[in-house]
Amino acid sequence: MLVVDQVKEFKISYDAELQTLNDQFEATSQRLEDLTLEERFIQEQELVKAIEKRVLSGDMTEEKALRRKLEKIQSEKLTLAEEVTVLGAVIPRFKQEKFEAIKELTRLFQEEKRMVEDTAYKRMMKDKKVYEESIIKEAESLHQYRKADVDLQLIEYEAGQRQSIFSDLVVRSAAIETDAYRFGGVYLPLEMKDIIRLIKNC
Q1: Out of the domains of life, which is the source (predicted)?
Q2: Do residues 189 and 161 both lie within one domain?
Q3: Residue 140 resides in a domain
Q4: Is the same domain home to 61 and 80?
């Protein structure tokens, strides 16, 4: 298996494990927050009325039930607070452990990356040479027609029908891509920005 594929698998596993820890931390924190609000409501609202009822009527049923409920809430809050503390320490430790775990993988990845880069750029240079050679070969017919054109002009010149002879080979390729429409869509140059765009696929 290529190292790059190992990196992909490691990252998938890392993301899944970290997501599980984060979800657990968030769910526990949310439950703790909800219980705190419920506890406050019972203490500030319901328990006050229950105590008033006991004082006025002697009925302690509601007060006892609320106090039992508060005890359960406080017990659960204590457990949840411990979980939040533990998870708060586990998550950064998990990240550090994974960092330690990828040290050797990172070294192997960088080696493989350099080899892939070297190969890719060598192939690009080879393809560039093929491209240049293709332009030179295709241009042979253009030179043939330029010579014939000059021959015709020369005859016209000698017959007094021309005042000069134009012997330069006109390159009918746009200098910039946006002008290609003026040359039948032909744009041959590859500028650095084009190379970057092609390599980065952007």
Answers
A1: Bacteria
A2: no
A3: yes
A4: yes
Do residues 175 and 188 lie in contact, with contact meaning Cβ atoms separated by under 8 Å? no
Report the distance separating Cα 95 and Cα 99, nearest Å.
6
136 contacts 188 by C-beta, under 8 angstroms: no
Counted residue by residue, the chain has a size of 202
Residues of the domain holding 178:
171-202
Among 180, 151, 145, smallest CA distance to 165 is for 151
Counting the structural domains of the chain, the total is 3
Q: Read off the pLDDT of residues 37-95 as tens digits, 9 standing for 90 and up.
A: 999 999 999 989 989 988 989 889 998 999 999 999 999 999 999 999 999 999 999 99
The two structure tokens encoding residue 14: 């890392």
Kindly report the number of other CB atoms within 10 A of residue 67's CB atom: 15
pLDDT digits (tens, 9 = 90+) for 165-199: 888 777 777 777 788 788 788 777 767 676 676 66
Query: CA angle, corner 18, sides to 16 and 19, nearest 5?
Result: 65
Residue closest to 65 by CA, chosen among 75, 55, 56, 54:
54
Residue where one domain finishes, among candidates 69, 101, 133:
101
In angstroms, the CA 157 to CA 151 distance is 10
